[in-house]
Amino acid sequence: MGKKWKIKTSTPKLDELEKGPWPSFIKELKTLAERKPAVEHLLGQMEQSYETNTNYWTGTVLNLDGYGGGVIARYSDLAKKFPEVAQFHTIRVIEPSAFVYSTKALRELCDVSENHSAGILQLHGMTGDILMLGSTNESMHTAGEALMEKGWDIGGSGGALRTLACCIGPARCEMACYDTLEVTKRITDTYISQLHRPDLPYKFKFKLSGCANDCANSMQRSDMPIIGTWRDNIQVDHAEVAAFIAEHGVDFVVDNVITRCPTKCITLKNKKIEIDDKNCVHCMHCINVMHKALAPGKDKGVTILLGGKRTLKIGDTMGSVLVPFMKMETEEDNEKLIDLIARIWEFWGENGMEHERVGEFIERVGLGTFLEGVGIEPDPQMVKHPRTNSYIKFEEYTKPLMAGEASKSPLVTNKEVEGKETA
Amino acid sequence: MATPGKKMAPRDNGAPDYKKYLHPLMVKNYGKWKYYEKVKPGVLKHVAHSGDVLYTVRAGSPRTLSVDTIRKVCDLADKHCQGFLRFTTRCNIEFQVTSAEAVEPLIKDINEILGFPVGGTGNSISNIIHTQGWMHCNLPGTDAAGSVKALMDTLYEDFINERLPQRVRISASCCQINCGGQSDIAINLQHHHPPKINHANMQICELPKTVAICPVAAIRPATVDGKDSLMVVDEKCMYCGACHGQCPSMEIRDPQTDSLAIWVGGKTASTRGGPSFMKLATFGLPNNPPRWPEVGDAVKKILDAYKESAKPYERIGEWIDRIGWKRFFEMTGFKFTKYHIDTYRYARTTYNMSTQVRL
Amino acid sequence: MATIQIAGKNIEVDEDGYLVNLEDWSEEVANSLAASEQVEMSPNHWEVVNFLREYYQEYKIAPMIRILTKEIGKKLGKDKGNTKYLYELYPGGPAKQACKIAGLPKPTGCV
User: Fold this and answer.
1) Which fold has domain B196-251?
2) Nearest partner of B82 among B103, B96, B67, B64, judged by Cα
3) A229 versus C4: which is more confidently predicted?
4) Chain C: nearest CA to B205, how far in angstroms?
5) I want to staple A69 with a disulfide (CB 3.0 to 4.6 A). Which of A24, A158, B194, B287 is the partner?
6) Interface contact flag, B2 C105, Cβ < 8 Å
7) pLDDT of residue C14
8) Is C78 in a helix, a strand, or coil?
9) Neighboring chains of A (3 or more beta-carbon pairs < 8 A)
């Protein structure tokens, strides 16, 4: 470093965060403040927040031309005191699948950040985007232009397909059951218009994990988790099993593998592992513990879930099963997935209310209704168990009304239900 | 207001081509990895069917990076890793080398040149994921980045070692939207009263949307001083702040009363019992910048109890499921109060509907 | 708060140039706001603005984009009932730029 912090804004509170062994984001900002006045004022404003426990950013929406999102615009409420952050916007940039980079690519991003904004990059935001902090109303355009010239593209915001994210997948993980990196890129590229020029009721996030360990955190932070799995038998290397038992002992295997199986489908007989694969729910635990001896099966694919989100409004939700198993290898498999996404967006887009995530929509209209709407047959794997309450509406589903649309609700009729005797 | 970029047309470039950014050994062994081994905390060894070996060294980062630091990161990757690197979901940086001998020189440079610790693998506390806070959000009641930095200082030894019963994932969120996510331990801001409405500045809001966004239907139209505005039914309001995001004139934050709560037992993997939501452990911690010491103390209590009594491979939520909440509150010393009992949707499903009690 | 002068009248706008008082809107004001956005108002541009205003007057909210694209498709032909066409008319986006010219409130935050 060498250079000394010699900026006139004093930040005694923030200085406390330079102490300690963990790398300090305040140090990062101070390095930049030596040449970026905006960062000095950012520190000044943050110091005031630290003194008053008050936030000083007003949010709004700004666009690059031809794009409906991707710039997170912030105006400082303290612009008089800190004019350099009067406008201090973040540009979201679509990250490469699995967050892999060449140093050339990273340096490119550094140059754009240095030349057109504050020189701060966050790697990465909660959605997955590269966040480039500190453009103004003017420089966001030149930054956007510079990024796009180099082949980068702007991420999603608002009621849009949001930037996707995925785990390291087959690039470096033996547990990956499908190509998370490629499918992430496919969905992004196929639906790039929906990411840039959105017409959805609200945001829609995908996160892709190669197995049930869910390193992309898809279950609870994406509307559509796509998670790798398999439908044949766990691959067992008996020699490695024996080596594992020899190393750790039988008790360890019983305590940490056999009894931890959620469906009790593994048994240990004569120091050999037997698996009742029909009852395996592909949770990955035994494979995680004995990762040299056990591996996912060979007939791989994905389980697709729907409806995960964070707390806002109805509280946290996890994704729930929509497609128990689907192959994800060939061009046709990809086409099927792309088509499924289109059907979901069509039905939710037509019937969802403004600011209603797809999980909230499903909760409002019912999963049964939703399945009918997107053309998927009900499957017992979609529920923990069938309903326990006996109040069943057997009539046709009534389409939710759009704002201003007149009610055309049909009369309730006794519809023939399979297996049900009607008068 | 001129927009100088006017000529710019949307390119729709799409996602970057990840294939250009993969380490050569990843390209060669794509989809053909056989197994991995833990070499030591922060170092993984991936072995491919071809016999190729790739060592990954994981370093913690502050997430918010200056271009100067990123350029240094690039210098290291150029020097040691053939010009390639990656980041993890939890904002760690992963450097990859192809021989065991290359590991220690790399670690030395990471520690000395970047000042970043190596760790975050296996049964450790990985980097804390968090929200924007006072640096760049328009809604925050606290600064997640600051409390995270202070907390990681406290938990540093558990990042660089693998000495916990199982991995522990932590997140921090600066308002009740909780963008930080489900985690084993979460530090989240808590509001304590209904929004304060600035009736003089309601014309900037679309009132029907603000009414509609309230999850408990507590917002109603009202006329105040002859102008269209809204009112909040206080006894219905649960202080979630959904209206504040829709309408900035419905201020939910309060520097005097906002506090922090700690949640435990969230898990996203479908392993064993499946994913789980986090539950309230303790609340009312002061929002106390710059180092939020009360947060560190509370998290340490949870981790001490967890280290003492969890079995191997038990995540925090699974450990509590086994020992029961009674014991959890005894061990941590947190007081169980009526506020720990759910009052929202499906609250009743969280009651103990059995005679199974620990006596 | 800044003010802009249109037809001899002082009109209050916010930092992004949105009308502070929605009742200040007139066709002249719209033309002036459009000019500041470098948008030249054609009859098709007016269709969008008129629909936004009608919808806002009835419901006090801006329509969801899907409702807007459908309506424009009905009025101007199916090939124009999509977001791509809306962004051709208003490169700054229907939510931001068209709403501004129509005198609707500024869209808020990112959550």
Assistant:
1) Alpha-Beta Plaits (3.30.70)
2) B96
3) A229
4) 7
5) A158
6) no
7) 87
8) helix
9) B, C
- Distance (Å, whole) CA B290 – CA B148: 11
Number of domains in chain C: 1
Q: Which of A55, A140, A176 is nearest residue B253 as measured by Cβ atoms?
A: A55
CA A231 to CA B326: how far, in whole Å? 40
Among A90, A103, A300, A310, which would you mutate to test the B interface (most chain B Cβ atoms within 10 Å of its Cβ)? A103
**Is position C97 within any domain?**
yes
By C-alpha distance, which of B161, B150, B98 is closest to B126? B161
Which residue from B134, B178, B289 is facing A310, i.e. has the nearest CB?
B178
Q: How many other β-carbons are positioned within 10 Å of the β-carbon of residue A267?
A: 13
pLDDT tens digits, one per residue of B10-64: 689 999 999 999 999 999 999 999 999 999 999 999 999 999 999 999 999 999 9
Q: Which of C65, C69, C96 sits opposite A63 (nearest CB)?
A: C96
Place of tokens 């970057």: B16
Contact with chain A for residue B286, Cβ under 8 A = no
Among B12, B209, B228, B249, most C C-beta atoms within 10 A, so best to mutate, is B209
Q: Please state, in angstroms and rounded to a whole number, the distance separating the CA atoms of residues B158 and A418.
A: 58
Three-state DSSP class for A102? strand
ipTM: 0.95
Cβ contacts of A267 within 8 Å, gap of 6 or more: A258, A273, A274, A276
User: Cα(A349)–Cα(A298) distance, rounded to whole angstroms?
Assistant: 37
Distance, C-alpha A255 to centroid of its chain: 34
Q: Quick check: do B25-114 and B196-251 share a fold?
A: yes
Stated pTM of the model: 0.94
If asked whether residues A66 and A131 sit together in one domain, one would say: yes
User: Within an 8 Å CB–CB cutoff, is residue B83 touching chain A?
Assistant: yes
Q: How far is CA A184 from the centre of its chain?
A: 11
Specify whether the backbone of B119 is left (phi greater than 0), alpha (psi in -120 to 50) or beta. Answer: left
Residue A143 domain boundaries: 12-149
